[in-house]
Structure formats: structure tokens, C-alpha cells
Amino acid sequence: MNTFRKASFTRRAVLAAVSAIAIGAFAPGATHAEWLDVEKDELTFGFIKLTDMAPLAIAYEKGFFEDEGLYVTLEAQANWKVLLDRVITGELDGAHMLAGQPLAATIGFGTQAHIVTPFSMDLNGNGITVSNEVWEMMKPHIPTGDDGKPVHPIKADALKPVVNKFKSEGKPFNMGMVFPVSTHNYELRYWLASGGIHPGFYSKSDISGQIQAEALLSVTPPPQMPATLEAGTIHGYCVGEPWNQQAVFKGIGVPVITDYEIWKNNPEKVFGLTKKFTEENPKTTLAITKALIRAAKWLDENDNANRAEAVEILSRPEYVGADAEVIANSMTGTFEYEKGDKRDVPDFNVFYRYFATYPYYSDAVWYLTQMRRWGQIADHKDDAWYDEVARSVYRPDIYLEAAKMLVEEGHVAEEDFPFETDGYREPTDAFIDGVPFDGRKPNEYIDALPIGLKSGQTVDGNEVVGG
User: CATH: 2.30.110.10, 3.40.640.10, 3.40.190.10, 3.30.559.70. Which one for 9-124+268-359+395-416?
Assistant: First the structure.
């Protein structure tokens, strides 16, 4: 476990004494506001070694936490389950989380606990990688352009003949994802299903997620993905960076698609806290959110001008601990597919623009629709239920209060935030299969998806019943 130094009270006293001078010297034009009278100023936050933990690292390294009177320790966690459990027990005050974790915990899928999020950490950032063997089998089914390179996005239609061949030979087609309620699980399932490959159902009695599956998905921790692929245990995986680019650098696999190509500007991680923490520490929660918003802005400002510095910070062993060259491959606006096939993907990692940090209810609803689609939510729910759960977990009220304070302090611009939104994005069809999603009509969306449970259906044993 990696633990950062913790600021002492002496250091805090010195900072407090010179804060007005420091603000004047280093942030001309910014209006200094007094620290919030935070209820708890020494905090420990958890994260997993992925590049999208960047807002935490930057808030720490650039002093944004300290600007808010917070003295933070950051700790890398072994896996997503350990991270969530430690937030629930209070060993961690908050953490970089999979967007599905607060939702799943709150509705009681897996661990039961009311977790909330006032801050969405990023958009995009994931990819799907296959082994070299699978890639060679896919290539005959992928159209090429005039330059001889594969035409992107590569659809799962090209993988279906490979999966069928494995099946005809009596061999399982295994793929890895990072956690049952991860974006990666849902993105991989979405991509597979859009190409006619069934990724399997969950049920009340079988949480393997492999009922009726043609591709067998199982959990592998992100840093272990490349080694597991190289060992042949899995034939492909969906993961965040830098673990897709690592496969390219090691020469063991080929990323075939990014999540930006599966769902343009999809929400990814969130910052999660227990509801109890936010109720007992409302000013601390505001201060945390303010610091994270400033970090996200730093990461995207001036057309990603700070990304090279961010790469150096993230490459340190206490953060992601991968080679800077590997992290830079995606973090600086490019992405390498087959070795040597590097393409511009300027929005592969988005931390601030497009209102990336606002916790939209519709984002929460999309995750819930996927839980329902694959049986993690076993029974039909009406549209009002999805809205109710989204509002109980996602806290844009906290976010906008923090944003308003930052605007008043001169750190951010008012137009950077959707102050007039009702919390729902406009309907979009920016998915690889073109199926439109309206967060206000979740059941209509679920019923429009060709593979998956429909209204009134449930999984009983190995069969889908009802509807």
C-alpha cells in the first residue's frame, strides 16, 4: 500500500498565516475566500492505479486540497472491493470509484451501503484489447481503408466469427473486466451485444454473469490485465489506461476500440463518499469538491497544455507507476491500436470540458439500465424508481454550490458549469449501435436494446421468463 506524507499542524499554521499573501502572489486576479470551517481537515482518500485517478493526484500535488484547508493522505488500494469496503468502514474518507459502485451499494447489489457522489471524475478513458491470436483471427472480417489500415470503429461483428470458432472447437472464449459493476463490464457487454455476441446474464442465485453467455466475462484487477492476457487465461479485456497501451508496448495484444467509440463522451469514474460522511461533514464535502473541480480544470485547460506534467506525476510509483511513455500514449491526445497505428483521439481522457465533472442523474440512470439489462437488478422497475435512485446517489446540489463558490473566488468561469440543467442530459444516439438513450425514459431504452432483459422479464435458472 502506498501512503503519502501527511501535512502537520505546524505546516497548516504557517500556510494559514501566509495564505492571503500567497494567493495575491501566485494567483493574480483571484479573489481569496476564507477557508470553509471544515468539520474534518485530515482526510484519507483511496484510489486504484489508473490514469483517471488524476484529479486526486493533481489536487494533492498542486495544493488545491491545502487551499481549502484540507490535509490529505492518498492511498493506492489493492482492488475495487477493498476500496469500497474501506470507505464503508470509515478507514477511507472517500475514494476514486467506479461509477456503478455507489449505485450498486445503495440498491444493495453486493455490499449494502448508501454511497453518494458530488463529483464525476472524467469522461472516456477505457479500451478493449484482444490477444495477438484473436486479432489475427479478427482481421479478415475488418474493412480496411485506402491506407491499408483497419477502419475504425471496429465492431464486435468482427469478433463474432472468432467466438463461434472457439465454440465449435469446444473452447470457452474468456474476457476480463475489472469489477461486476464497473463501466468496463457494461461497455464490454454493450460492445459484444451490439455485434450479436451474448455476454451473459446474472440472476438472484447466480452472480457469475455467465448465464447463456457466448463470451465468458470475469474479474481481473486492472494492473494484472496484460499478464493475464499474456498467460492465455483470457483472450481479451476491457480496462482503463494505461493497461491497454501496456499491451501494445509489450507486444502481447491489440486494442480494438475505445469507449469513446462505443459511447461518445461517456461518464467514467466518480468520487464516492458515504452519505453519513456528507451529512456529518457538509463543509468538508464542499471543500473536497472545490479542490477536485480545480484539479480537473488544470488537467484540461489551455488545450491540455498541462498533460505532459500530469503524465510525469502519474508515472510516479505512488500513483499509477507505469512508464511515462505508456501513460502519455493516451493521456496526451493520441491512442495506439495495432503497433505503429497511432491515431489522434483528443478526447480519450476528458476531465473538465463538456461539463465532465457534473454528476448528471441521466448518467446514473444509464448505469442502472445496464444493471437491469443483464439481471443484476433482477426485477422490473418503473421509470420513477430509476430517477429516485439517481437522485439519492448523485448530488449535483453539492457540486453546484462548490462551483458557485469557485466562480465567486475567480478560479473558474460561470460558463464552465450547467447551472440551469435539471440534471438530465439531452437524449443521445452517440452509441456504436445507434440506439437512442433518454435518461427520462429508461424502460423504453432497455426494451429497444436487442440483447438483454426486457420489461417484466427475469432470469430463472438458465432461462429468461416473463415479459
Answer: 3.40.190.10
Cell of 192: 459484444
Contact 419, 407 (CB under 8 A): no
- pTM, two decimal places: 0.93
Query: Is residue 34 very low, low, confident or very high in pLDDT (cuts 50, 70, 90)?
Result: low
**How many whole angstroms separate alpha carbon 158 and alpha carbon 156?**
5
The burial class, CB within 10 Å (0-12 / 13-18 / 19+), for 124 is buried
Domain boundaries of the chain, sorted by first residue: 9-124+268-359+395-416, 126-265
Classify burial at 114, counting beta carbons within 10 Å of its beta carbon; exposed 0-12, middle 13-18, buried 19 or more: middle
| Residue 9: per-residue pLDDT | 34
Q: What's the CATH number for 126-265?
A: 3.40.190.10
User: Does residue 248 contact residue 339 with C-beta atoms inside 8 Å?
Assistant: yes
Longest dimension (CA), the chain: 73
